[in-house]
Structure formats: C-alpha cells, structure tokens
User: What shape does this take?
Amino acid sequence: MKRFLEKFVEGALLISGSVTSITILLIIIFLFKEATGLFNSPVVEEGYVLAMNKSNPVKKLNSYQIKHIFDADITNWDEVGGKEEPIEVVRLSDLTNYYTEEELGADFENIPAKASELTASRPGIILFLPEQYIAKNFDGTLLSKETMQPGDFFGGTEWYPTASPSPQYGLLPLLLGTLWVSLGAILLSLPFGIAVSVYLAEIASMRIRNILKPLVELLAGIPSVVYGFFGLVVIVPFLQETFKLPVGETALAGSIVLGIMALPTIITVAEDAMRTVPRAIKEASLALGATHWQTIYRVIIPYSKSGITSAAVLGIGRAIGETMAVLMVTGNAAVIPHTLLEPVRTIPATIAAELGEAPVGSGHYEALFALGCILFLITLVISISIEFIGRKKY
Amino acid sequence: MKTTKKQETNTNFGSSQFIPPVAGGVSGSSSSYSSKRWSQAIAFTIFKLMSYAVVAILVLILGFIVSKGFQVISWDFLTKSPEEGMTKGGIYPAIVGTLYLVLGSSLFSFPIGIMSGIYMNEYATGNKIAAFIRIMTNNLSAVPSVVFGLFGMALFVNVMGFGDSIIAGSLTLGLLSLPLVIRTTEESLKAIDFSYREGSLALGATKLQTIWKVIMPMAFPNIITGLILSIGRVSGETAPILFTVAAYFLPKLPTSIFDQVMALPYHLYVITTSGTNIEISRGIAYGTALVLIFIVLLVNVIATILRDYFSRKVKM
Amino acid sequence: MLIIDAKNVDFYYSDFHALKNINIEVEKNKVIALIGPSGCGKSTFLRLLNRMNDLIDGTRMTGSILVEGENIYAPNVRVDELRKKVGMVFQKPNPFPKTIFENVAYGLRVNGNTDNTFIEERVIESIKSAALWDEVKDKLNKSAFALSGGQQQRLCIARALAISPKVVLMDEPASALDPISTAKIEELIYELKKDYTIVIVTHNMQQASRVSDKTGYFYLGELVEFDDTTKIFTNPKEYSTQNYITGRFG
Assistant: This one.
C-alpha cells in the first residue's frame, strides 16, 4: 500500500513536470497550424474573383501587383508582363458608370450578363466581382485562384490586412519596426544596465546595495501597461516638444520605455555574473598594484563577459516580446521606418491590436498567427543562444 | 637594467635564470600614479550617477502615478462600476476581475508548478529528463506574453470552446506563470542541504515521507515568497488576457467561470487608448494605474516581510 | 636595515581578536616561514603586510607595520603603490583569463607601463625567474588556463616578480599542488631569496624547515616563538612549539 502510494505520487509529479514541455509542443502545433493556413488562403478576398479580357496575356497576378493595380500605382499591363495597354479597373460599384440601373435590373439580375459583356468589350479591363455574378458562359478570363506565397509574407514590404481586393501581409515593416525599437532600447539601457551592475557588484557599500537592489526589483515588477501609460502621458509629449514632431508616438518613445523595462533584467543578470568572479582573481589583481577600477575593467568585466552578453541578449529578448507598452507609445504605423523619430509598429503590437478584429479562420487571423510564429522563433533562438553563451567557458 | 645572473641549478627540474628587481621599480612615476587615481575617481563617479539616475527614473514613475492617482482614489472609486462611457464612476468590476484571474491562474499553476519543481529536484535529479524539463521550462519562460495570448485564444477559447471566459484567461495566465513557480520551487528545494534527506532516509522514512515531512516544511518559506511574487506578475499582465477573457465594459460581476470579466491592466489600456473620451477618462486612468502599482508594491512588501519573518524563525 | 618591522600588531574581525600583540622583524633577502595550526592567524598576518585585509569588511588593526622603514598603515599611504612593493602569491593558482604573456604583463600595464619592448623583456625575464620559460616559451599567447596547476602557480609567481617587488608574500603556495610541482616551487623559493625577501605561510613543517631561514610559530592569534629555523626545529624554547612541530596536534 505504502509502495503503491509512492509510485502513484511519483507518477503524478512526472505528469506535472511534463506540463511545460507539452505546452511548448502545443504552442508550436497551434501557432504553426494556423500560420500555415495563411499560405492556403487566396490572394484575392474569399468569394470574389478577378476577371480580364480574353485577349489579355496576363493570367497570373501576385498579391502585391493586385493591390497596386487597384491603388492605381500600376496603370499599364506592360508593368506586370502584359501588352502595352492601359489598365481599366472596374469594381462592382463602378458598373453603374457603364450601365444604367435599369439595365442592371431591379434585383441586379442582369449583372452576370452585363459583366460578361463589359469584359469582352474592353481589352484593358480588370473586373473585381463577387463569384455569384460570374455567368456560366462568362466571356473573359478569370484570374487563376492563387494562394498567398511565402514570398508575399516574408518578403512583403506592406502590412495592409484590410486592403481590397488583395490584403497585404508583408512581414518586413513589422519585423524592422520590432528590431529598430528593440535595438534602440538596448542601446539606451545597456550602458546604464552595466554601470548599475558594476556599481552594485563592486562599488556600492552593503548598505546602499540593500537599498538599491529592491528598487531594481520593483522596477521589474511594474506592469507593462503602467509603463505604457507613463510613456504615453510623459515621454510621448516630451519627445513631441523636444524634437518638434507632428506626433510624439515614435520608435524612440518605444525604445525609451522598453529600455527602462529591460534594465532590471540586464542589471540582475550582469551583476550575478560579476559576483561569480572568484575572489582569488580579484585579489591577485589588487596584489599586483592595480587600483580597484583597473581590476574592474581589466579583470572583472572580461571574466564575466559571457554573463554580460547573456544580460544584453536577454534584454533584447524582453524588448522584442514586449507588447502593451510598445502598443501604447509607438504610434503603430505599419511602414518601414527610416529614423527613430517616426511612428513604427512592432510584431507583438500588431497581434495585440488586430487579433480582436480578425475573423477566426480568415487570412488576416492566420497572418497574425504567422507573426506569432516569427516571434516565437526569435525568442527560441534567443533562449538557445543564451544556453550556448552560458556554456562557453574559458 | 642590471645584468642577468645565469645560474645552473643542480636539479633535474630545468634551469631557472635569475634577474634581480629593476632598480627603482618598474614605473612609479607620480604622473602615472595620479592618472590611475583620477580615472578611478571619474569612473566611479559616473557609475554612481548612472545608478542614481536609474533610481530617479523609478522614483519619477512612481511619484508621478502616485501623486496623480491619489487625487482620484476614493472609496467610491474602488467600489463602484464605471459610469457614462467609463468617464465617471469607479473600477470595482476590474478589481474583482483581476482577483478572479489571479485566483484562477494560481489554482492551476501553484499545484502543477510545485509538483514539477519537486519532481525535477527530488526525483529526476541530474538526469536527462530533468535537463529536458529545465530547457523546456526556460524556453516557456522566454515566450512573449502576446504569444501566450494567441495560444490561449486558439486552444482554450476556440478549440476547447470555452469562449472568452475566466477559465480560458486563468489557464492562459497559469501557463504563463508556471515557469516562475517551477523555478522558485526548484531553487528553494536545492537550497536545502542534502544531509537532511539522508538523515530522514536513514531513520527509515520513505522518499515521499522525507519530502513531505522534512524537505517541504523547510523549503516552504522560500516557495511561498516566490508564489507571492508570481501573483504580482500575473495581476499586471495584459496581452494574454486581451483575447481570452478581458471585457471592455461589463456593468455586472461574473456569475460563472464561463463569463467574461473586466481586468485592471486591460481597463487601463482601453481607457488610455480607446475609451469614449480619453481626455475625460484620464483621471480614472491615473487611479487605475495607482491601484496596479499598489498591488505590485503590496506583493513586494509582503514577500520581503515573509522572507525576513521566516529567516528569523529559522535562526531561532 | 630591516625590511619588515611589525610592532604591537593587534587585529580584529569585528568582535574576534584574531592577532594579539605580534612583533616580527625581518631582514633583507631572507625567507621567513610562518607556521601554526589552522585559524592561528598566520595567513591573516601575511595579508596585513600588503593590506589585503582592507578588502574585508568590519576589520580593524592597531599597532604599526613598517616596510623599508615606512609605516604602511599611515593615512597617506597609497595602497596600490605598497602592493607593487610587496607582491603576493596565493594558496590556489589564480591566473587571469588572459594569455600567459598578458598575465605576467598585467602588473606592468596597470602600473602605467606603455613601453612594449620593456614589457616584453620584463615578462620574459620574470617567466625565466620563475623557472617556467622552457615549458611555456612556445605558447606565450595561449590561455593561462591551458597550463597545469603547478605551472599556473609558477606563472603566478612570475606575475608577482614582474613588477619588481621587494618582498614576496606566499600564502601556502604549494598546498594545492602535487609533490613534484611542490618541489619545483621550493627550489624556486630557494633561488629567489637572492634577490627578494620572502614571507611564506605553510602548514607543511618539512617545507618550512627546507626553505626558510627563520620561522615564526603562531598559535591562537599569538606569535609564540620566532627564531632561526634550525633552532625552532631542533631546540624550540616553548613547549607549545615543540608539540606542534613534533606533530602532537595541528
């Protein structure tokens, strides 16, 4: 009986122990399952088709081309590999420019016939219609049903998930936005983080350390929305005034807030690393007539450089994954940033801002999960590299 | 330089050549000495100032929110529902919602986390399973909170069909805090000297009895401190609850675990960014931020007091 | 002239009275061994000679220690200058995570030497003095951690010699080493005394008798006896010393 209980408890403990592993596994499964759905989602909005004149040699358009045709950035078929022929964009609502309402019918019952007729008569036409209005004997070519390609996502330079007829799910502006903000954050916080960790580990008296250390821990405990709120009401207006900007919600504001948030991580990890420097090595340096400061920068910092690197990488990791604070202060413009003084949009902020509006199972929804995968992979690379840095010894 | 004396030693340890110390020392010029001193003084001053700057940032944030928030906090603010499009009234439903979420996630993460910690430190000590679990736990703790939100939405809200509910939010938050609980437990157990285990086992106690009667009571103070700190973290998380439980506005309190709730961090987010009137709601935002900060401070203070209390008890 | 002259030295670790009224006079170019059971204060006394105990919080010293006639505990003393004059070798080899060359060059560099030719000469001479040259001459740019324990300890000695100290303190320099490495270190000490004054702490009686000219026996924070080594080991005055060196306790 006693032995049975022992075995039973051990089994229960093992099951509990496996929960984190199972969670990781499930995260991978769910994220990637939804994300790969993106590459089965159509380039053109679900339930709609694009039609062209039969004489038009263009049979395929990618999502980027479609968007720019409808935005009138591309105006001639030769720009997308067709003949020299101006593009004539026609949407369902534009049909009234060609036909009277009587001609289309009171219940729009004549739209299929008229659409077919219009397409046949205009060589440069591209017609965007709901599928139901395509007649059986439609006189024109229907653009083949393409799905989103990995290139549209990984190489896409525009994030415009509600664009019609072809939504844009380009990763690049969001990825670059994330990297800009995180890089800015680490550049701001690393000097401070290292300075504070040196001060705490080596310079400060026990009494001062006992005061500073809990304060640093407190900094780590403040919720990210509070940082975001503080950033929004203090840092954003400050930046706007200082740099005379049209809006204060910029990458720099995000970097400052994230920099503050990354500080406790950097300080704690770097300080721990410096504290593991053997006393014997410090004493050896001092015994050779080095000053305390010489000992710090010639022996202690080099000796703990793998710990300091870990601190920096962890800080970047924290910055990359941070959501709410960034969402609140960076302005969220999904454009590729050129300076830190422009609004940017990061990957986590995009997920947080848009998931509520994306219908479950839609391309948009799947694109947000694909962003989640990217984020997950970045943090995975970071934790693996930390393991790797940690293992490296002299 | 003096001349080098060459000398053969009569042992087979190899030769050693002797040189006397350089006359007058190797450097000793007073300029190098004072530059050493100056660079130390300058470097230490810079480090000190930068450290105080970091403290100043904290004081600025806390001071700003506390001073602005105190003007808003009142008994009504803490006990009334939001009114008139969240421009007036209080934050009572959000406080209650956050309490439910903390409670729900703790019910999930504390038992599982503590049990995993025990398994890793007491049963799978040093073997490959423990190493694997540790790597997975570390990876999980590095996953950004918004990814937990995505995952919680996909699994609990959609696949398991809980909808936006307390249970979906609690499970998501519970998973998020699990690594913290596991690590706390493991560290606390690791800190207990192995001789206590041997002592108990030598008296004929089983492993389980040893853990239950000797090890856990000793590790308890540290574990409880860690658990309290994890409550602080959970109560401030926003991204994981965005799509799993949080409601923009609910006039009434939840009646079952399948209801949505309001929550403090989400409430702060919506009234600062997308409320009906952001300017008028600003006061409520300061008040909400202060309540959140207060929870964090409270949690830290309780943890510190407990740590001191228990460590004093152990000494006696 | 006396190179070290300690007068009425008392030392406390907060409440603990670790050294009681120690008086020692050391002449130039001699090897002094300090012996005694664990916790007797011999290492503490050694670390007073280059003010290494300054690093420990809550310590207090009274009395005076003169090195070359100057009180090293006078308020205007520059501690790093003192440590250049009084070098130290520690119990366990503690090379820096740098190359062999840079380990030895370290003391020169931190003391403001920028003349690379001089540094190189001095490094090579020091490594030769430490009887390590033949073993490392081809790998001066390799990490010091690649050396064996005994080699590391001789590297640490070379490192201490490079800044031309007057006195070299050795805190049980061979206790972490194997017998062959130990013999090499002892051989080295014997040779070094031609140019340096050496104070060595050891718990190994044979070692003390082999390498030193004078021996001091510490017990419970007091210097029980300080005399010529031959005398201490053949005809000690104090009963306690006799007990210790004959191995009745310790």
Summary: Residues 48-146 of chain A form a domain with the D-Maltodextrin-Binding Protein; domain 2 fold (CATH 3.40.190.10). Chain A has two domains: 48-146, 172-391. The mean pLDDT of chain A is 87. DSSP finds 17 helices and six strands in chain A.
